[in-house]
Amino acid sequence: MTASSPNNLISLPVTTSLEVTRQEYQYNYTHIPAIAMVDELPPAERFTTNWYFLLAQQLREIFINTLITNRGNRGSKSLRDDVKMFIWEALLKGAIPFNISIIARLLQIVPQFLIKGISKDFRELDDLLFSILRENGLVILRDTLNQVIELLYEGHPTGHVTNLKDYEKLFPVIGVPAIGKTFQEDEVFAYMRVAGYNPVMIERVTNMSDRFPVTDEHYQGVMGTDDSLKAAGEEGRLYLADYGIFEGAINGTFPHEQKYVYAPLALFALPKGSSPTRLIRPVAIQCGQTPGPDYPIITPNSGKYAWLFAKTVVQIADANFHEPVTHLARTHLLVGAFVMATYRQLPATHPLRLLLRPHFEGTLAINDAAQRILIAPGGGVDRLLSSTIDNSRVLAVRGLQSYGFNSAMLRKQFQQRGVDDSNLLPVYPYRDDALLVWDTIQQWVSDYLNLYYATDQDIQNDTALQAWAAEVQAYDGGRISDFGEDGRIQTREYLIDAATLIIFTASAQHAAVNFPQKDLMGYAAALPLAGYLPASTLKGEVSEQDYLNLLSPLNQAQRQYNLLGLLGSVYYNKLGEYPQGYFTDRRVSPLLQTFQNNLQQVEHKINQRNLSRPTYEYLLPSRIPQSINI
């Protein structure tokens, strides 16, 4: 064992320190039964002032846009006057505590802050909020914010649209998202499968099953008579997106209208040829798992609005899988379990804890906020997604419990879905860029851990590391399935892979599924988070108004952008940028510099790739935060 061995770092004071930490970081399995989460958020895990600073910048833009949309210009001469009028209305209706000193400062600071953005006004606003808190208490401040939000939504547009342009009126200040111009195009719909917000669904298939009886007539009507289903299957050109997990899911109704959950099947195919720029095309959609009159097979030749309706059903199902499973369960909740085990079992000076800690910043805080607000009854998920809140929470649990850690290694994920071969599927930006980032992280992790573990025996003898591995998977611990090598960590290779997956998930994977929420998911015309007509509507002739009635009502569309636009805007930290002087071991410095240089090379390579493919920028290292904090 070398002098820098982790075992030599453990002593009685360290053990005592861990006991204190374990009292602070206690598990709770009822916030989202039966996921391992933190019981009470420790003070050290709260959001920083700088994080609130960034959040406030985004809230400012959303507030102004919503204020103008819902309340318009009420005869005032400026936006400043509009804001002041709103504040007075909030005061008169009791949403803001009536205190003369607070009122004066509100009228002075808030309009300036909202119109010009954040400078010193943020500190003044911060002081003002603390004044309200000091004089009225935390409960009053929380209630005040809730009442102000409800007042802001008074007068909001509502009802189903009669023209898609009605959605554009929701963006008087910030402008319509770019996806609003292209979302109906088949190429854009197909590109979402390989470079969208949920690019993890398609699987290569060799033939069609009885539950999705696509025929050569369907196929050749799209791909041409010189091709066939049989040939495409044999040549590895057929890809399926299957949302069978929603079969039997319960339709939601919150807040008012009936919503619908769909379990569609969607077939995509790659054209014949050898061009490295070939893109997959949508071929056929069945909006349920059982073929028959209720779920006819729809193709681009079925009529404009029937095809738009069917594509939208797939988008809705994709979004309803993305939010609770791909996003919440398989990034937020997965990493959250490792945060808990790491702080409870690894001493503060342990090399693995030092490596992982910056990738955990803000994660317990955002997960705690999510379970209390976002995925609680009456929260954003309940309001916006198709299913009931209970069904969405169960889906998150299933999503995590079915995500075995060892099979979640990135290359294994692609192999399991049959999408790992770039010769068969040449344009898959998420796959190709993710592998670049993965390999760069893995090299850094390997270089770092090899400083402290010279042999596999060193790994096996590290009692703190083995206790960590045991707690990660324990029923009274992190409950992460399929972790370790026979319940332990036996080799350096495994530890390197495990740490790589944790860091990749906390940084790149979360970036890939979080930040498209603003650009691709925020605009409800392009991607409603719920459907408002049953899929059986496709039994008959589908009109334009049927298609429009499937989409979100305007009040839901506004809330959708405000939530997803916020979640997809906060870039708090950046991959590879550890705090100055964070690693005190001088041997780490050149390794970290190499990691940062390699990330720059990845950035350059992705930018070069984007010159010959539809742009995909979510895995540019400059756009990947270090941790899950939003």
Describe this structure in words.
With 630 residues, this protein is mostly helical. It has three domains: 6-39 and 324-623, Up-down Bundle (Lipoxygenase-1, domain 5); 73-152, no CATH class; 180-312, Nuclear Transport Factor 2, Chain: A (Roll), CATH 3.10.450. It is built from 24 helices and seven strands. The chain has helices at 12-24, 49-71, 79-92, 100-116, 120-136, 138-152, 165-168, 186-195, 216-223, 229-234, 304-345, 351-356, 363-374, 380-384, 389-401, 410-417, 429-449, 456-461, 463-473, 492-514, 516-521, 544-550, 554-567, 588-609, and strands at 27-28, 37-38, 203-205, 238-242, 265-269, 281-286, 297-298. A five-stranded antiparallel sheet has the order 3-4-5-6-7. A two-stranded antiparallel ribbon has the order 1-2. Strand 1 and strand 2 form a beta hairpin. It is globular. The two termini are 41 Å apart. 44% of the residues are buried.
Describe this protein with a few key phrases:
630 residues, mainly alpha, Lipoxygenase-1, domain 5, 3 domains, five-stranded antiparallel β-sheet, globular
